[in-house]
Write a structure and sequence with these properties.
The protein has 259 residues and is of the alpha/beta class. It is built from five helices and 13 strands. It has helices at 16-30, 51-60, 77-85, 122-134, 165-173, and strands at residues 2-7, 38-42, 67-70, 96-100, 103-107, 141-144, 178-183, 190-194, 197-201, 208-209, 222-223, 229-235, 241-247. A six-stranded mixed beta sheet has the order 4-5-6-7-9-8. Strand 6 (141-144), helix 5 and strand 7 (178-183) form a beta-alpha-beta unit. The longest helix is centred in the N-terminal third of the chain and has 15 residues, at 16-30. The termini are far apart.
């Protein structure tokens, strides 16, 4: 089994609250009896893409477990590259792939500089086809991006989700090695299907957005009360992905039922 932790929408903003919540989640991950093989951060690492926010994120996300991140719509590609990846500044898509045991993880940059919605460029599709061509023929592949490629019944997110999702769905449906697609952006734990595979949307560590049955726009949109949360994806030898969503109590562990 390969275990991957997914942390999303951390929104580092130089404030103590969001940073503390991420630190609590990272501590939870580090304390697991079976530690994950990798931690994926699926976008909106910072709240407004400022260099000092990335410096804060770099310190908070330090771990002896490999951490791989992609940008979201709140991020800045140039600052992301220099601060988190140690690369020269560039506005080109930040796509990268990693082998995690037998698993190939392809992280796709769906951000569009200056916009809230997402898109995968022709350059990104060409890159992904190359990754798939190089991946082992009988080993699992996991795709990660920020913007969900499906309708989530969210009055906030559905208008700024991934454009042209059918193009990605065709690619996913055509490769049996792809065990699932994981995203962020929605600030909510969501499970659905896409291209015949699981589509799992991770919660945010910072806040929660509800579905259309619970939001009252423009009021009561973002809920900052719930504890931070993450997703844990287990990929087994049968190319099946099982996901657990877990909240991390800011008040600590309580092992005895309160009366």
């Amino acid at each position: 089994m390969i275990l991957v932790a997914q942390v999303s929408d951390t929104h580092f903003d130089l404030g103590a609250r969001n940073a503390e919540r991420v630190e609590r989640v990272l501590a939870f991950i580090a304390d697991l009896q079976r530690r994950p093989d990798a931690i994926l951060v699926t976008g909106d690492v910072t709240d407004s893409g400022k260099p000092d926010q990335y410096a804060e994120a770099r310190m908070a996300l330090k771990s002896d477990i490999p951490v791989y991140a992609i940008p979201g719509n709140h991020d800045d590609r140039a600052a992301f590259r220099t601060a988190l990846l140690g690369e020269p500044a560039s506005t080109a898509p930040i796509n990268h792939a990693h082998r995690v045991g037998e698993l190939t993880v392809a992280l796709l940059d769906s951000s569009i500089p200056g916009e809230s919605s997402g898109r995968l460029s022709d350059e990104t599709y060409d890159w992904l086809r190359g990754v798939l061509a190089a991946a082992p023929a009988d080993a699992p592949v996991l795709l990660a991006l920020h913007h969900p490629p499906a309708h989530l019944f969210s009055p906030v997110i559905d208008g700024i989700s991934l454009t042209e999702p059918d193009r990605l769905a065709e690619l996913v449906a055509g490769d049996k090695r792809i065990v699932g697609v994981i995203t962020g952006h929605a600030h909510s734990s969501v499970a659905t299907t896409f291209g015949g595979r699981p589509l799992l949307v991770a919660p945010s560590t910072a806040s929660v957005l509800g579905g259309e049955w619970e939001l009252d726009l423009p009021h009561r949109v973002m809920d900052y009360a719930p504890d931070p949360a993450l997703a844990l994806h287990a990929i087994d030898e049968n190319l099946r992905m099982t996901t657990h969503f877990r909240s991390v109590p800011m008040g600590g562990w309580i092992g005895v039922q309160p009366r």
